[in-house]
Structures are given as C-alpha cells and as structure tokens.
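Figure 3 (text version): structure tokens given as input.
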C-alpha cells in the first residue's frame, strides 16, 4: 500500500514538472517572436520606435495581443538614407495599426480615418515601407529626398498625393479605386491612368510628360497637365470632364484642333473650362489662334 502511494506521488510530481517546463518554453518562444518582429509587449505605448532590420519583417499579417498589422498591404518609397521623410496618412478604420520600416528604423503607430498630419520618419536605408491598411497617402514636399514610389501593393488606396518630389516613374495601374492623384512637380515622363476608372481628379503638371494615357478614366472631371512635353492629348473618352488646363505643352495647330474636337459636350448651364494659353506671350499662341476653337465653344466650353 505504501509503495502504491509513493509511486502515485512520484507520477504527480513528474506531471507538474512537465507542465511547468512546457509553459516556460512557450513564454520563451513568445518573447523571441516579439523581439524578432520588433513588436512592443502588451501594455507598452501604442506609438513606439525600435531598431531592427527590415529583413526581419515577414510579408504576412503579424498578430499579437492588441496589434494586427497587415504586412501584405504596403507602399514603398525610394528615399535618401539618413534623411527625415515627412508623410501624412489616413486609414480604413479607426485605431488601425501601421508599421513604417526603413533599414533598422521601425515606427509602430496608430492611424485613424482622418489625416494624421505630416510627421517625420527617419530613413535608415534607401527605401521606406509603410505597412498597414492605409486608404489615403501623402508624401508631398520632400523634394529630392524621394525619387520613387511604388503603391502597387496597396490596391485599396483611394487618394495619392506625391507632389513636389523628384519621382521619375509612377505606376498606378493596380490602384483601380483611386479617386484623386496629385503628382505635380516631379520628373515623371510617362503616366497611364487608363485602369483608374473611378479617378475624378488628376493634377500632373510641371513634370516631363511626353505620354499621358486617359482612355479608361471615364469618371475624370478635372485634369491639369500644363507645362509638360506633350505633343498630343486625347480626352474623347473622358465624358465627365469639365476642367482642362493644358497650356505650356508643344502642341501643333493640328494637335490643338484635335483637343477641341475631342472635348465632351457640356450643358449650357454648366460650361466647361479650358486653359490652353497661359498668356499672350505663350509659345503656342499662333497655333491656338490658327486653330478652330469654335468647335470647343459650340460644345459649351469657355476657352482661354
């Protein structure tokens, strides 16, 4: 009888030991995962920064306690290493977790549905990636500190403002729900918005554009493409267009006539506005004067 009791006690003690060891192993694994992802432990401040390598951030959703950053949805900037990059964000929902990674510089922030206001983030490498469910993105005014922008992995983006930088290439073909695109004052040579069927406003002036494809952007109402290198412009499929500013491009007389002919019909009570000359000293003055702008007037467009 005593032997049985002793054996039972030993078995019970061994079970407790195994349970304690398992719990310790799980806690250690969780702590290692937290360190690997650069994730603050529960109870720490929502907005925090840490130094980790961006190669440690997996391209999957990271879940932990009160955080769930969507690492499959992101925007990547090409930046100048060592500079402060100013960006403004708005998310799909309130209290959206967002992680900003540039080399060993990592910032964990919470973003709501309203703009956060411009905030500076340290560039620890030549790229800066903004992970999370961002709906509206603004990186305007960074000058030569931003030379590239890739938004193809954030297909739910509705507004993109990237003006006043040195961006050379911009591909928005994957951003099919984009409604506003402001990319003026960059160095973009070609822009295609034919996949952006709900785009209503496009401001791409003061670039180096030689090609601007608008065919699929049927919802476009406002377009400013002045001061580029365009030799032709077709707005025939932009049936909602009511504002067009295209002066400062090297149009020939025939190109100007084609623009007049491609303008959509407007109502007499809501005439369109077309700016094709900057002033009387405009280089295209003779071409415009020689063209048949009556075609535009007959479609209820005011022409300047």
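Below: residues designed for each position.
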């Amino acid at each position: 009888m005593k032997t049985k009791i002793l054996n039972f006690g030993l078995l019970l003690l061994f079970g407790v030991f195994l349970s304690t060891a398992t719990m310790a192993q799980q806690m250690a694994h969780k702590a290692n995962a937290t360190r690997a992802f650069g994730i603050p432990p529960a109870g720490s401040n929502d907005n925090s920064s840490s130094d980790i390598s961006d190669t440690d951030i997996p391209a999957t959703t990271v879940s932990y306690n009160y955080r769930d950053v969507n690492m499959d949805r992101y925007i990547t900037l090409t930046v100048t290493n060592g500079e402060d990059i100013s960006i403004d964000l708005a998310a799909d929902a309130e209290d959206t977790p967002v992680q900003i990674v540039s080399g060993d510089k990592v910032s964990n922030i919470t973003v709501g549905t309203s703009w956060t206001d411009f905030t500076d983030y340290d560039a620890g490498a030549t790229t800066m990636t903004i992970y999370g469910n961002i709906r509206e993105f603004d990186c305007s005014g960074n000058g030569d500190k931003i030379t590239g922008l890739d938004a193809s992995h954030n297909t739910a983006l509705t507004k993109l403002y990237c003006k006043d930088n040195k961006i050379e290439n911009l591909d928005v073909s994957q951003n099919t729900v984009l409604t506003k695109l402001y990319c003026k004052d960059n160095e973009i040579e070609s822009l295609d918005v034919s996949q952006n069927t709900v785009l209503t406003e496009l401001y791409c002036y003061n670039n180096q554009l030689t090609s601007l494809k608008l065919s699929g952007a049927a919802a476009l109402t406002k377009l400013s493409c002045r001061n580029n290198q365009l030799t032709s412009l077709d707005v025939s499929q932009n049936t909602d267009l009511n504002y067009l500013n295209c002066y400062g491009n090297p149009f020939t007389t025939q190109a100007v006539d084609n623009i007049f002919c491609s303008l959509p019909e407007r109502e007499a009570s809501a005439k369109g506005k077309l700016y094709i000359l900057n002033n009387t000293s405009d280089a295209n003055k003779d071409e415009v004067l020689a063209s048949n702008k009556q075609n535009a007037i007959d479609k209820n467009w005011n022409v300047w």
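The chain has a mean pLDDT of 83.
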